[in-house]
Automatic annotation (TrEMBL):
Coiled coil segments of this chain: none
Signal peptide: none
Domain Mannose-1-phosphate guanyltransferase C-terminal intervals: 252-333
Record-linked PANTHER family: SUGAR-1-PHOSPHATE GUANYL TRANSFERASE
Protein species of origin: Streptomyces gardneri
Residue stretches making up the Nucleotidyl transferase domain: 4-236
Family: Belongs to the transferase hexapeptide repeat family.
The name this protein goes by in its record: GDP-mannose pyrophosphorylase
């Protein structure tokens, strides 16, 4: 049996207002909490036991997933009283692991949507005899990420955090946020204080002569840290570009949950999701967007690459482009919101309050 740790304790600050009332892994993507996709993919790869390392809004996870039996898993929950960072969170849940000292433990960041071949990563770990194995992916612009150069056998040579100059960019391989640890390595992480695996654990292991192995897997990969990325990831799940056994319906241009109501002449395209009990009015056009549970989109509204929070209302003829509307917000008719604008939860925006002229 391979077991796993899922790191789901982050506050999701960059995703606000989506994460004001909901922890990032529980924000719906393609109709279900994003964490559901990660759990389902882990189970499909043969994982049976998962420990969730929780912190922010920790109380919402267990009521939803319970003991994990509905997903064919055994799930346990460990809550950090104070944020401990990625390494600290891993160490904090070590007592719940069942693996022997030399057995593999999978570790996933809770905000990565990926098509990673999980079994291939475990097999690479076993065949290389590594202490830690890392999923690496290649990106065009690596400046926002941690670079991980490797030798010709895939053995990690260094960890370079967020390089800025051309001289510092020695590879396009980045840390993609999934690891396999030899169980005994987890016990070497300090307890009772914040620890970053990226900035402390991995560099120290490398300096001590430990074997860190990289496996490049350049299938689908997306960091869901921003609202725009989250909306895109949800659409890609619906469109079938990102793999998941947990999408509650057939992949296609749209996903409408059964209790939602959509006017016959409304047009939904580009992987749009309409959540439970949401209402889409006559003539509305929605592309590549997520409409969460109980939201109302009034007639003639045009919504593109945007997210409308639970219970929010979008007024008639209002135009949203790249916008995020918080839970319970009320956006009046004839507004135009675009370019990454965010409307906070429960805010009321009057009719015709925000408009853009055609030459802007």
């Amino acid at each position: 049996m391979t077991e796993a740790i899922l790191l789901v304790g982050g506050k999701g600050t960059r995703l606000r207002p989506l994460t004001v009332n909901t922890p990032k892994p529980m924000v719906p993507a393609a109709g279900v909490p994003f964490l559901t996709h990660q759990l389902a993919r882990a189970r499909a790869a043969g994982v049976e036991h998962i420990v969730l390392a929780t912190s922010y809004l920790a109380e919402v996870f267990e009521p939803h997933f319970g003991d994990g039996s509905d997903l064919g898993l055994s799930i346990e929950y460990v809550t950090e009283e104070e944020p401990l960072g990625t390494g600290g969170a891993i160490r904090n849940v070590a007592s719940r692991l069942h693996s022997g000292p030399d057995e593999p433990v999978l570790i996933f960041n809770g905000d990565i949507l990926t098509g990673l071949d999980i079994r291939a990563l475990v097999d690479t770990h076993a065949s290389s005899g590594a202490d830690v194995s890392l999923h690496l992916t290649r990106v065009e612009d690596p400046r926002a990420f941690g670079l991980v150069p490797t030798d010709e056998t895939g053995r990690v040579k260094a960890f370079l955090e967020k390089p800025q100059t051309p001289e510092e960019i020695v590879t396009d391989q980045i840390n993609a946020g999934a690891y396999v640890f030899r169980r005994s390595v987890i016990d070497t992480i300090p307890t009772g204080r914040p620890v970053s695996v990226e900035r402390e654990t991995f560099p120290e292991l490398l300096a001590s002569g430990a074997h860190l192995q990289g496996m490049v897997d350049s299938t689908y990969w997306l960091d869901l840290g921003t609202p725009q990325a989250f909306v895109r990831g949800s659409a890609d799940l619906v469109l079938g570009r990102a793999p998941s056994p947990a999408v509650p319906g057939r992949c296609g241009d749209r996903l409408v949950l059964p209790s939602a109501r959509v006017a016959p002449d409304a047009k939904l395209t580009g992987g749009t999701v309409v959540g439970a009990d949401a209402v889409i009015g006559e003539g509305a056009r929605i592309a590549g967007s997520t409409i969460l549970a109980g939201a109302i989109v009034e007639p003639g509204a045009v919504i593109t690459d945007s997210l409308v929070g639970a219970g929010a209302r979008i007024g008639a003829r209002t135009v949203l482009t790249g916008a995020v509307i918080g839970d319970g917000a009320q956006v009046g008719p004839d507004n135009e919101l675009r370019d990454g604008i965010r409307i906070w939860c429960d805010t009321t925006l009057p009719a015709n309050a925000v408009r853009f002229s055609s030459d802007q």
